[in-house]
Design a protein that fits this description.
3 helices; 77 residues; single chain; alpha+beta; 3 strands
Length: 77
């Protein structure tokens, strides 16, 4: 599992709204493939496809995951 760089000092993720990978990767210490695998297992928030090439995550769910990544379980749709 590859680690990402740490979040820049002063960087924050809004509580509400949607964010793309480029916006959340500084907060998530995992690579994209590990995130994809955890999404499939229900251990990371599910992405939403806005278009064929644009995926976003709900900021509230990312905050839930950041608060307790080991015990996080995605809620059933």
């Amino acid at each position: 599992m590859a680690m990402q760089e740490n979040a820049p000092i002063g960087a924050t993720l809004p509580v509400d709204g949607l964010s793309r990978w480029e916006q959340i990767k500084v907060f998530v210490p995992l690579c994209r493939e590990t995130i994809r695998q955890r999404e499939l297992a229900g251990r990371f928030p599910k992405r939403q496809q806005l278009t064929q090439r644009c995926a976003v995550w709900q900021n509230r769910e990312i905050h839930r995951w950041l608060a307790d990544p080991l015990n996080y379980r995605a809620e059933a749709a």
